[in-house]
Write a structure and sequence with these properties.
Elements lengths: L3 H11 L6 E2 L9 E9 L7 E2 L1 H5 L1 H14 L7 E6 L14 E7 L2 E3 L2 E3 L3 E3 L6 E4 L4 E3 L2 E3 L2 E6 L9 H11 L20 H4 L2 H9 L9 E6 L7 E7 L3 E2 L7 E6 L2 E6 L6 E7 L4 E7 L5 H13 L6 E5 L14 H11 L11 E6 L2 E6 L4 E8 L2 E8 L10
Parallel strand pairs: 15-19
Antiparallel strand pairs: 1-2, 2-3, 2-4, 4-12, 5-9, 5-12, 6-11, 7-8, 7-10, 13-14, 13-23, 14-17, 16-17, 18-19, 18-20, 20-21, 21-22, 23-24
């Protein structure tokens, strides 16, 4: 069984003074000693297994096993290992947020200052912090090797072979493909929600339906886990055409679940053909050009067959803060399909469903969860204000 001492000895024996160098301008103005185990996202490339992991499989396996035994509840896709440098104040913009840190080696000082939790001492124990808040390493002397177990925002966009390699080969527990989510990372929630298991379960339970024939749209405002959208379709559906880069389709218990990737601006649409059991995805970038994209979307909606089931949702914000009004042509078409359309607010949730007999559009505040269910009895709307809004609706 690994310990601080055995891991330190392992690194001394295998790496000595020949540590890999990393260029990390967000934490240091100069190259630093360090490496990543597990998921990495190379520039201009899809997420994959880090080069260090494959080059040093024994080191990688033993460090991951050590973390898994030391912190049984930790969920992570990657481990950043640092040697002898103090990270400047920064935020981990590409991480989910919840991170575990521990430092070993003969050193004094080197505590972690965090914006949200004050000063933590990772030398004495594994400490949980939220990397999406500002943090920095305080001064230290001696040899300090730190380990940060975190989850990349790309943890569920891996290719299936990489998922198998990371899970079976190295013990990484947050590695998925097709936008599938780890149960404790639903919606890429910040730490303040992640550590509240009951809150996660309650929110997830709101998505399910007792009616096996119901269509369900579920959307959260940006304040609730940085935005999220899920859809449920009765029956086993497949994509029409190419797989979209902004959503995943999963089949379970006689139904299909569409999970929209987080932080995708604009309006996201899905046209379902109940006869062919296919789903046509489409995204309109109103956030970037409200007028042009709005007119484009209005023309596209005109082409949808009357017997189709249409979903419209959002996983970040539909429009810019300054563009609260949709183009008139689009508003007219949406009103025709879904009935009255409330004002489209910046970073507010949207759940809209159109059936052959009519439609409904539901929205809320950036701190609310909205859920819309459509079945034989009509439309059923639900909204919930979650008190643990952990991120400001302002950018």
């Amino acid at each position: 069984m690994e310990s601080d001492a055995s891991v330190l000895k392992l690194l001394h024996q295998r790496l000595g003074e020949k540590w890999p160098r990393q260029v990390r301008p967000n934490v240091s103005d100069a190259p630093v000693q360090g490496f990543v185990i597990g998921v990495t996202v190379p520039k201009y490339s899809p997420p994959t297994v880090s080069a260090f992991t494959r080059a040093h499989p024994e080191i990688s396996r033993r460090i991951v096993a050590w973390i898994r035994r030391s912190v049984p509840d930790a969920v992570f896709s990657s481990v950043q290992v640092n040697r002898n440098y103090a990270a400047k104040r920064h935020t981990d913009a590409n991480n989910v947020g919840p991170s575990w840190i521990h430092s070993i080696g003969r050193h004094t000082g080197g505590k972690l200052w965090t914006e949200d939790r004050g000063v933590l001492d990772p030398k004495r124990r594994w400490a949980l912090f939220d990397g999406n808040f500002q943090h920095e390493t305080l001064p230290f002397s001696g040899e300090r090797i730190s380990f940060i177990a975190f989850t990349s925002r790309a943890y569920n966009r891996l290719q299936p072979p990489a998922v198998s390699e990371l899970r079976a080969g190295y013990g990484i527990n947050a590695a998925f493909s097709n936008f599938e989510e780890h149960p404790m990372l639903r919606g890429l929630a910040p730490m303040t929600q992640l550590v509240n298991v009951e809150e996660v379960k309650r929110r997830d339970a709101m998505f399910d339906s007792e009616d096996s024939n119901a269509f369900v749209a579920f959307s959260t405002g940006y304040n609730v886990g940085r935005g999220k959208a899920m859809l449920r379709l009765p029956g086993n559906y497949t994509w029409e055409g190419e797989i979209p880069p902004f959503a995943g389709l999963h089949k379970m218990n006689g139904a299909s679940r569409i999970i929209v990737a987080p932080n995708r601006t604009g309006l996201i649409c899905f046209v379902c053909n109940p006869t062919e059991r296919t789903v046509l995805p489409k995204r309109f970038y109103l956030y970037h050009n409200n007028e042009v994209e709005g007119q484009k979307m209005a023309r596209w909606l005109e082409t949808i067959p009357s017997n189709a089931v249409v979903f419209i949702t959002v996983s970040d914000t539909a429009v810019k803060k300054s563009d609260g009004v949709l183009p008139a042509a689009l508003m007219g078409k949406l009103t025709q399909m879904f009935g009255p359309i409330p004002p489209v607010r910046y970073r507010a949730p949207i759940a809209a469903i159109k059936l052959p007999g009519g439609g409904k559009w539901v929205t809320g505040t950036p701190s609310e969860v909205v859920r819309l269910e459509a079945n034989r009895e009509g439309f059923h709307e639900f909204r919930d204000l979650l008190s643990r809004a952990s991120a400001s609706a302002e950018p």
